[in-house]
């Protein structure tokens, strides 16, 4: 689980662990992952999705601990341009956002998917956002974040097409606007994802995490290595 040390990622790890899967929580700082592990009990990994070396080391460590990775949830993400508009976004912000939200997911999938193909089983879930939908681009807010999620959706479709015919399935899940330590507070009633909710409120973390976890469990038959799941965090 990338991005598994807090927020939606931490709740997803907790729910997956409750289902009996062995969850590995990674984070840019091992301390953050270990703190999460004290809450839900899985193992910790040091993983910076913006570093190819860190990703390679984390996947090697995860494989050594479990024998193989059956499920990858790419949840690591950043939003660095909340109040900016397209003409005013610094190129460094755009680059940093893409490096985590798009290229980070690409790096981890590139390191994990070959092992899934070899094992004959794998599930990849990329956590996306309604802001990545071209149909819902109704303003210029969050331009770097929006672009990164649109690109992540494209990566999801390309990976799914490339792996068609194998038992490695790739999907994207949008948990919606979520009330957590990083967003979803009641004052954001104008956010598009909130406007589409009947009750006008952001969902809480357990509900948002359940969306992703239902997708993971509903993507075909269980793995032969039923209790194996890797989760790296930012």
Characteristic key phrases:
234 residues, alpha/beta, Rossmann fold, 7 strands, disordered C terminus
Task: Explain briefly what this protein structure is.
It is built from eight helices and seven strands. The protein is globular.
CATH architecture: 3-Layer(aba) Sandwich
Low-confidence stretches: 183-203, 226-234
The number of distinct helices, counting runs of at least 4 residues, comes to 8
The count of strands amounts to 7
Give the DSSP E fraction (strand runs of 2 or more residues).
5-15%
Largest sheet: 3 strands, parallel
- Predict the CATH topology: Rossmann fold
- What is Rg? 17 Å
The structural domain count equals 1
Q: Mean pLDDT, rounded to whole units? A: 79
Structural features, described:
With 234 residues, this protein is of the alpha/beta class. It has one domain: 3-Layer(aba) Sandwich (Rossmann fold). The chain contains 8 helices and 7 strands; from the N terminus they run αβαβαβααβαββαβα. It has helices spanning 7-18, 30-40, 52-66, 91-101, 103-119, 143-162, 192-195, 205-217, and strands at 24-27, 43-46, 71-74, 122-127, 168-173, 178-179, 203-204. The protein has a 3-stranded parallel β-sheet with strand order 3-4-5, sandwiched between helices. Strand 1, helix 2 and strand 2 (43-46) form a beta-alpha-beta unit. Helix 1 crosses helix 8 (205-217), helix 3 packs parallel to helix 5 (103-119) and helix 4 packs parallel to helix 6. The longest helix is centred in the middle third of the chain and has 20 residues, at 143-162. The termini are close together. Residues 183-203 and 226-234 have low confidence and may be disordered.
């Amino acid at each position: 689980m990338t991005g598994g040390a807090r927020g939606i990622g931490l709740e997803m790890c907790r729910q997956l662990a409750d289902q009996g899967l062995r969850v590995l929580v990674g984070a840019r700082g091992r301390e953050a992952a270990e703190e999460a592990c004290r809450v839900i009990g899985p193992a910790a990994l040091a993983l910076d999705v913006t570093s190819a070396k860190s990703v390679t080391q984390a996947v090697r460590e995860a494989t050594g601990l479990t024998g193989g990775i059956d499920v990858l949830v790419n949840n690591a993400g950043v939003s660095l341009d909340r109040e900016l508009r397209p003409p005013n976004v610094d190129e460094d912000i755009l680059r940093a956002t893409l490096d985590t939200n798009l290229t980070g997911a690409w790096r981890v999938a590139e390191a994990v998917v070959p092992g899934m193909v070899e094992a004959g089983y794998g599930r990849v879930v990329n956590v996306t956002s309604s802001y990545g939908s071209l149909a819902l681009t109704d303003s210029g807010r969050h331009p770097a974040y929006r672009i990164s999620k649109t690109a992540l959706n494209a990566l999801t479709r390309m990976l799914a097409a490339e792996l068609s015919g194998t038992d490695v399935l790739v999907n994207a899940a949008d948990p919606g606007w979520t009330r957590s330590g990083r967003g979803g507070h009641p004052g954001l009633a104008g956010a598009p994802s909130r406007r589409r909710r009947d009750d006008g409120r952001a969902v809480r973390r357990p509900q948002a995490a359940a969306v992703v976890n239902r997708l993971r469990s509903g993507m075909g038959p269980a793995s032969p290595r039923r209790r194996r799941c890797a989760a790296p965090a930012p």
